[in-house]
Amino acid sequence: MEKIKLSSSLEDYLEAIYNILLHSEKVRAVDISRELNVSRASVTEALKKLDELDFVNYGRYETLSLTESGKKYAVEVLSKHNHIQDFFEKILGAEHEEACENACKIEHIISENILDRLVAFTEFTKLHPEKYNEFVQYYKERRNQ
Amino acid sequence: MEKIKLSSSLEDYLEAIYNILLHSEKVRAVDISRELNVSRASVTEALKKLDELDFVNYGRYETLSLTESGKKYAVEVLSKHNHIQDFFEKILGAEHEEACENACKIEHIISENILDRLVAFTEFTKLHPEKYNEFVQYYKERRNQ
DNA sequence: AATAATTGTAAGGTAAGCCTAACATTTTGT
DNA sequence: ACAAAATGTTAGGCTTACCTTACAATTATT
């Protein structure tokens, strides 16, 4: 089974749905529209697409939910987001808001491999604040596990 | 005078023109179309827009050139690209190709401030490979100059 | 110089992603 | 229960950025 790559826009919708479900029972189109600053009409349109791709269970005026693959996809995007934001905030020292905004865009386009290296670098940096240049070796060994 | 922010796409066109002019006398639409993997028709369309915005001097069947602001804009984008690529390649140890591809996308969306911090971090890391955590202080001082 | 090949442009089409306005449905308040 | 408010949907439009096809202009070849 091919791994589908969604557009940045649809990834944002999935992510928003997941986030809303973290602190609510239900997701309403209007919640998503507020989260993403788009019209309710745009939300309906996006939900139809996500439903066709089997990432959400959607029906007119019905309760919306994520499918298993929708949940999985959302978690992946969110994980990317958090890793990128963490690097910007904790390593580069950027403000929370700015780190978040940048991560929101980069999460959709960064490659798996570079993200993996970035994560490893952040981890290592946190573990060994005094010397970072053992990182290269660390990364090599980490890859060979 | 407001600083115009071009779309990612138009930034790509400007960048391509600049790059071609680095090793050619003239830029042809077909060169741009090859560099960006788009049709010649799309190039014509983009050139009309860039001409209207006064980033290129363009006229039907005439020699194309960058205006001063076009050149300035292209240099800025290219500089962003190089900084990001440098971090991915030299610090994270990614392959040249992958570093370049990722930089090509991120250059259009990263914020000035985070890029500045990334650049400083890369510089510092190169200067002090043994201890990186003086970076925070370094960055502060660097900002106050 | 005439023809062939290349390059540039115009016209018309497509898809994604957004919008507003109007209408349908559901929920809320009295 | 019923009117008012909120929410969801549809229809129609817009913009960006692509495309293909056909034609125009330029450049290269013989």
From TrEMBL, chains A, B:
It comes from the Bacteria. SUPFAM superfamilies: Iron-dependent repressor protein, dimerization domain (SSF47979), Winged helix' DNA-binding domain (SSF46785). PANTHER family: IRON (METAL) DEPENDENT REPRESSOR, DTXR FAMILY (PTHR33238), IRON-DEPENDENT TRANSCRIPTIONAL REGULATOR (PTHR33238:SF7). This is Metal-dependent transcriptional regulator. The keyword Transcription regulation applies. InterPro entries: DtxR_MntR_Metal-Reg, Fe_dep_repressor, Fe_dep_repressor_sf, HTH_DTXR, Iron_dep_repressor, WH-like_DNA-bd_sf, WH_DNA-bd_sf. Residues 6-67 form the HTH dtxR-type domain. Belongs to the DtxR/MntR family.
